[in-house]
């Protein structure tokens, strides 16, 4: 199942700004009714982990080959293009 869309950095900043001036989770959620209350709460909690409003990169699939392995393969192919 696919993840839902992320909030834009501008919207995240606005949510955190409203929280900083004293608005509660519910009041912010009423301002933006298309955003679930749990998302508002999670956004405010996770804001401390973000750098300049940018999400941390997600882990991807582990790489099968290291950069050194890739370079070695390319070198072998350059030396002998008929190798499989």
Automatic annotation (TrEMBL):
Q: What is this protein called?
A: Transposase Tc1-like domain-containing protein
Which Gene3D superfamilies does this one have? Winged helix-like DNA-binding domain superfamily/Winged helix DNA-binding domain
**InterPro entries in the record, alphabetically?**
Homeodomain-like_sf (IPR009057), WH-like_DNA-bd_sf (IPR036388)
